[in-house]
Amino acid sequence: MANVEIYVSAYCPYCHRAKALLDSKGVQYREYVVDGDPGLRDKMIERAQGRYTVPQVFIDNVGVGGSDDIHDLDRRGKLNAMLGI
Q1: Separation between Cα atoms, residue 64 and residue 37, nearest integer Å
Q2: I need a labelling partner for 76 at 20 to 30 A (CA). Which of 5, 25, 59, 69 fits?
């Protein structure tokens, strides 16, 4: 199974949606809450090549984008392969 990381904000509905998709697939992920932590948010922005919105999802250290992006990958049948499931 792939190493999955997700940067989130506690009250972000898109974050909840992205996590729900990952949860529905039984994927374990490491969650980073950027609220009130400018250093962590800066790290996210750097890793996401300038993207500053949450969520930001990384699969095996590759930034795949946010909630809409992973749902699109799922619709196109590509997410499961990336997740190793």
Answers
A1: 22
A2: 5
